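Subject: Sanity check before I submit

Could someone independently write out the structure tokens for this chain? I want to compare against mine line by line before I put it in a report. The sequence has 203 residues.
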Amino acid sequence: MNQQGLFGDPSPSVLSAQRPDTSAAQSTHTWFFALRPAIEDALRIHAVATALLGETGVSGKRIDPDRLHVTLELVGHDVDDATVDAACRAADTIRMPAIEARFDAIMTFSAPSGPCVLLGGEGLDDVRALRTDLAMAMADRGFSPSRAYEPHMTLGYDPRHRLPRTSIEPVRFAATEFALVKSYIGLSRHEVLRTWRLGSPES
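---
Independent answer below. Compare away.
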């Protein structure tokens, strides 16, 4: 497993890094930066996920294709406009080429809801690099990013069936932008507020 701390130092295990954020318990909205596959990639990943989860006995709630994503960094829960603006100004500084996200494993994280996720090793190094740049830019503007980060894509939730980390055939998608997303908690709805292009303007 290739897990990386925010500034390159050792970070806790994946399981301990995925403790639920209790500050979100009474919130109505969450803002976060994310990589989102294009719709054709999202539909393909959703089909692969359905097959994988069926083969492994994982049932429960599935994530719809339009909500599949890789979280880069949390902005906050029920934040004000000034906080969102500061996060956007941090994102404005990011200069990176388009990247590929490649997952090669599936497992269940330890949260009580039983999130079943895609993970990866070297195939997610560019995602880690993007997140590090974004987190450092946000830290410069008063945010407090976690030092531990493990990129993943949640496929569904099943508290009854938990998978150990299991290798799979690679699942990949190209990312040419990242987005600021507003999540409506409890409503299974994501709203993309703004996007930032990865790559040169001519690419």
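---
OP: Matches mine. For the report I'm noting this point. The radius of gyration is 16 Å.
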